[in-house]
Amino acid sequence: MNIVIIEDESAIADTLIHVLEMDGFQAHWFNTAGAGVAHLKTKSADLLILDVGLPDGNGFELCKQIRGFSDIPIIFLTARADEIDRVVGLEIGADDYVTKPFSPRELLARVKLRLKSIRRQAQPECEQGQDELRVENFDYVRGNTALGLTALEFRLLDALLKSSPRVLSRQQLMDFSSMPSEEAYERNVDSHIKSIRIKLQKVALAECLKTKRGFGYYFEKE
Ligand code: CA
């Protein structure tokens, strides 16, 4: 799970990153509103922790802006009582808030609660069974839904499915997918996997593509 943090105080961000990573989350920190929004517009994320007072803007305005293109759960970090009133008003589309100074454990509990309630609402995301993924025209298809993979994504997913449930390292994924050498960087593998996961959401299989931290990726079949 990817958690984005937009917070200008590095000490607070460091604490957050630490507790989240200790619990197996991936944390991406941005210290300005602009950088955070740019990230959210292009990358997938599961939850946003958003500070109200930012050097280049106000968290409330930012929240409204984000709601224009994303329904990502947002937990506010607020410092002042008048800020809390506005968050509680929920006019701005936030899901929850934590007041500063906060205990990292409390924040972690809120994050988990928020993610759990989303998972309950969403349909199960690793539901295999009656409909299997099949290949059609260099794309994977489930039921009537094609994933719309690029050629490289197709080769990456193909390698993972054929190796399932074995973990493939990023290097193996680059080799098996014949990734062009000018693109063959580990971080590129990560971003392609991210994009494949988003496409797998269309067929409720996103949760089947797993990260093995420190090793690589694998596809879990039932
Ligand atoms: Ca601040």
Can you describe what's shown?
- 27% of the residues are buried.
- The protein has 8 helices and 13 strands.
- The protein is elongated.
- The chain starts with a strand and ends with a strand.
- It has helices spanning 10-22, 33-42, 59-67, 81-89, 104-121, 151-163, 170-176, 186-201; strands spanning 2-6, 26-30, 47-51, 53-54, 57-58, 74-78, 96-99, 134-136, 139-142, 145-146, 168-169, 209-212, 216-219.
- Helix 1 (10-22) crosses helix 5 and helix 6 (151-163) crosses helix 8 (186-201).
- The model has no long low-confidence stretch (mean pLDDT 87).
- The strands form 4 sheets. The chain has a 5-stranded parallel beta sheet with strand order 2-1-3-6-7. Strands 8-9-10 form a 3-stranded antiparallel beta sheet, with no helix packed on it.
- The protein is 43% helix and 21% strand.
Write a brief structural summary:
This protein is α/β, with parallel strands linked by helices and 222 residues long. Helices cover 43% and strands 21% of the residues. β6 (74-78), α4 and β7 (96-99) form a beta-alpha-beta unit.
Lay out the secondary structure.
Layout: E1 2-6, H1 10-22, E2 26-30, H2 33-42, E3 47-51, E4 53-54, E5 57-58, H3 59-67, E6 74-78, H4 81-89, E7 96-99, H5 104-121, E8 134-136, E9 139-142, E10 145-146, H6 151-163, E11 168-169, H7 170-176, H8 186-201, E12 209-212, E13 216-219
Helix pairs in contact: 1-5, 6-8
